[in-house]
Hints:
The protein has helices at residues 12-21, 33-43, 51-57, 68-78, 96-107, 121-127, 138-149, 163-191, 196-204, 211-220, 231-248, 253-267, 278-283; strands at residues 3-6, 25-29, 46-47, 60-63, 87-90, 112-115, 118-119, 130-135, 152-159. The chain is an alpha/beta fold. A 6-stranded parallel β-sheet has the order 3-2-1-4-5-6, with helices on both faces. A 3-stranded mixed β-sheet has the order 7-8-9.
Amino acid sequence: MKAGMIGLGAMGIGMAKNIAKAGYLTGVYNRTTAKAQNLAEELDLIAFDQPEELAAIVDVVLICVSADQDVLAMIEAIALTIKPGTIVVDMSTVSSDTAKQAAAMLAEKQAAFLDAPVSGGVEGAKNGTLAMMVGGYANVLEQARPILEAMTGRIMHMGPTGSGQAAKAVNQIMAAGINQAVTEALAFAQAQDLPMDKVIEVISGGAAGNWFLQHRGPTMTRGTFAPGFKLALHHKDLLICQSMAKQTGASTTLIDMTIADYERLMAENYGEEDISALYRLKTEIRIEN
Length: 289
Ligand code: NAP
């Protein structure tokens, strides 16, 4: 099976390296061509100039780009050349509606589509330990599984097209709550003049311990907010969650609060920082890094 990867951002680069290590990656495409050329040189792959050139020669097209319109632009491009029977796996975080639109566009070319968003951050992408939530036909997932296993520690089939993205929205709402909880609690600890490293270490070993506290607690309390997961991307995800929640009348308290907080930070040009930059609001620190 020959795979091609579109999108070599913070997530895509680690994913691509792991697929290459497993022996499946034929070539890569990235909008900013230098990134594709550098990786192709490092791994001895093809750097495609256009996504449609990549789609013409592989069996599985993997996509990890930013937002809904970017995914649809890539699907439109690859639909021009894609072979019948090709599987397209989109690992970007977008809406369920976008996933359904992508699947319909590809079905016209007899190509299959899986929405397969991931969780686990850039560390998970680098280490091949991502959790993947998949929507689409189960038999298509089984065909693509060997490639997806090279990037993941866990793959869960959620149901029909769009259900992978719906599951990812659950994750993003929970991530907003965890960010609110950890940043507010650590700002409180700081106001109590507690030794922050000890607070993070002892709480990580108890009932309130979590991934975000362990990985981002030490950096946020030192005033560094390098992504990680860009705040502007999580903001984009929460707008998707807000609109999906409104369709069903589900609670949006946490989503609304976090969107408003992120918008304050984005207005101060912190959108490219890690989501842990929420700590700036909780402590009212504005440190220029
Ligand atoms: P990123 O570092 O900003 O990279 C975005 C990638 O998408 C870049 O390769 C970019 O190309 C490409 N891109 C954007 N718009 C495009 C367009 N219109 N046409 C072609 N390529 C385009 O983002 P990331 O952190 O890798 O995230 C990628 C996706 O994974 C997002 O949907 C995000 O929500 C999701 N995600 C991220 C994390 C995380 O922790 N970072 C975790 C789980 C899921 P250029 O290089 O030319 O800009």
